Amino acid sequence: MSTSAVEPGTRLAERFRLEDRVSESDGATLWKAIDEILARPVAVHTFSPDFPRVHEVVTAARAASRLTDPRLTQVFDAAEEEKAAYVVSEWVTGESLTDLLASGPLEPERAAGLVAEAAEALAHAHEAQLYHLCLRPSHLVWTTGNTVKVLGVAVDAALSGLTTDQPALDDAEGLGRLLYAGLTGHWPGDEEEGGLPAAPMTDGHFCTPRQVTAGVPSYLDTVTVRACLPEARKGQGALASPSQVAEALADVARPMPIPISYPSTPAVASASQTEGLDIAHRQQLTIPPLPPTPRPPRNGGGSTLNRVLMTLVVLLVIAAVGVGAWTIGRSLGSPTTPEAKGGTPSSSTSASAETQVVKPKKAQGFDPLGDKDEKSDMAGLAIDGKPSTLWKTEGYTSADLGNLKEGVGLLLDMGKSMQISDVVATLSDASGATVELKVGDSPELGSLKTVATEKNAAGKTTLTPDQPATGQYVLIWFTRVPADAGNFHGTIYEVVVHSPGSA
């Protein structure tokens, strides 16, 4: 199938319907498409008959599909056939580093946190002998789900025909350039990149970040120099791999979820060579100022009224003291008076005092009414204790899960049967989710009993059973999911399970 024959509406593999042509370069065309089986947007690359590196791109895509780090965009399918060759990957929505730098340099800690996440992700790719080789600001994305994504691992290099004898060093230098850009708003290269101006130079060498932007911490300046500015190292060792960059940035604070609502319709689309990227404009909420507190009238007429009020207050205080003393005296003189309801604390007080956090043994995406799995490779991120990581459902075309199924969720295996006091789930800040808490001793949907329901849930949501609930399996079950930049997802950043003890 030639590029000229590929038009909007074309279906590949009888499931991927091409919708919008995003970009085209040297015989490779990037499309935004719809996976009609899973009802989600995907990025699809097609190739003209004379594109010379189809085999290399498809091979790289198939290798990249085995990567499991959620910070690397996922490849879903790749085919090299006589009539059609294509690569299908995750459609990412969010803001690239280029977009984030549109109004100037980032806060140093935020820039470092973004690059630290990217370095860890690339270190995992290098363990599988897969490399990027062409890192640019457009490849580093802060998603609408408040996570980092690195676009184009392995595939973009194949598209461009890039090879190297030192892939670890090249990717370390690429990470250093991203950090330089985040700290300064400039690109340390021979020419402008993605609208960023070239970094200033002195004596024929790029200035260090601290020479360009005031307030850059010295340790971040040092990391950048060691990664990508060899002329300024002055005897300091080079950071020669993504894992070394990740280790140098291991102590920086990671970017946290931003409590901002996103519009349901994405704005202009942008992308790397291989993955789609929607840019969603964030809406700032403005809190109106409180009205001024009215002042009392300042005239002599209020003084008499004030004296009368003061006298009444004094009399009421004296009466209250007298009644209190009489009540205490009666209590001391009546030892047979029972304490509150049998002298035991209330059940709620006792429960709260004995409740403890129990960490699940395992988490998995739960889709018994669909393809049986819902991004289980990311499920552990909802119980890792890190609020910056997350699990989310597949994308759906409507709040009712595209009318494809009645629900989907995250299933926790507690390791043994126990009583569940409550479950605290941190959801996305977008309202509109309907969440049920189901508990049981079998990981089958029919065996799990609904014990709590929360409608229009958002943010930190506590699901408390109406009656005592006991079981080994805890299911957070979405029956409706909120809008997420033109799509609909259920999102869980973190889950905390409380139990009064084992059943």
Automatic annotation (TrEMBL):
Residues 332-381 are annotated as: Disordered. Residues 342-353 have a biased composition (Low complexity). GO terms for molecular function: kinase activity. Keywords: Kinase, Transferase. InterPro entries: Galactose-bd-like_sf, Kinase-like_dom_sf. It comes from the Bacteria. This is Protein kinase family protein. It comes from Nonomuraea helvata.
